[in-house]
Write a structure and sequence with these properties.
The complex is a heterodimer of chains A (118) and B (111). Chain A contains no helices and eleven strands. Chain A is mainly beta and 118 residues long. In chain A, strands 2, 4, 5, 6, 9, 10 and 11 form a seven-stranded mixed beta sheet that branches. A four-stranded antiparallel beta sheet of chain A has the order 1-3-8-7, with no helix packed on it. Chain B is mainly β and 111 residues long. Chain B is built from no helices and nine strands. The chains are: A mainly beta (118), B mainly beta (111). At the A-B interface, strand 5 and strand 10 of A face strand 3 and strand 4 of B.
């Protein structure tokens, strides 16, 4: 398997523009996670899906962020409008299943999308 | 929620064992200890997890104290490629199934 695939790998945009990040999870995995990593805040979970359904979006910073998973093999994270403080590395991860009961299935991370908002 | 405390950085000589400590004094009975690592510019990578007993796999060993308030990740023969940030995470029912990453320990393996 190719692992978790994210695109684009790098994105530079101007403040106010819409940004769409894409993720293809590992085939057969039922759970998908979006994380954001910055120097100041470290690695934060934004949202996760089980069987294409959003389970916990408490980490989504504000209404400018939205995530969708229209099918088992694709998810998007959209920022509209983007702001300079959104500059970060965004990781997508997938696992066989997430949630209780533990132990949690191993999460496999993609290479990340490095976003710079000017 | 249980939280973890790790030293911000550690050094280790290549070929020697790297012992990375983690304190989780408020861990609950149903919570597991997980270790992930993140090599520079890559996504985090799972290493190992445990509940009560010590665990070993091809990457590392996990030693959990009897009272479960702390643990140690052991890389038996560290190589330069083990240079990374290592995250100790406690998770279970209280976290609703989520893994919450802290600041981790930056391990530098030196020749």
């Amino acid at each position: 398997d190719a692992g978790v695939i994210q695109s684009p790998r790098h994105e530079v945009t101007e403040m106010g523009q819409e940004v769409t990040l894409r993720c293809k999870p590992i085939s057969g995995h039922n759970s998908l996670f979006w994380y954001r990593q910055t120097m100041m805040r470290g690695l934060e979970l934004l949202i996760y899906f089980n069987n294409n359904v959003p389970i916990d979006d408490s980490g989504m910073p504000e209404d400018r962020f939205s995530a969708k998973m229209p099918n088992a093999s694709f998810s998007t994270l959209k920022i509209q409008p983007s702001e300079p403080r959104d500059s970060a590395v965004y990781f997508c991860a997938s696992s066989l299943v997430a949630g209780i009961p533990p132990p949690q299935e191993t999460q496999y991370f993609g290479p990340g999308t490095r976003l710079l908002v000017l | 929620d249980a939280k973890t405390t790790q030293p911000p950085s550690m050094d280790c000589a290549e070929g020697r064992a790297a012992n990375l400590p983690c304190n989780h004094s408020t861990i609950s009975g149903n919570e597991y200890v997980y270790w992930y690592r993140q090599i520079h510019s890559q996504g985090p990578q799972y290493i190992i997890h445990g509940l009560k007993n010590n665990e070993t796999n091809e990457m590392a060993s996990l030693i959990i104290t009897e009272d479960r308030k702390s643990s140690t990740l052991i890389l038996p023969h560290a190589t330069l490629r083990d240079t990374a940030v290592y995250y100790c995470i406690v998770s279970g029912y209280n976290q609703g199934g989520k893994l919450i990453f802290g600041q981790g320990t930056e391990l530098s393996v030196k020749p």
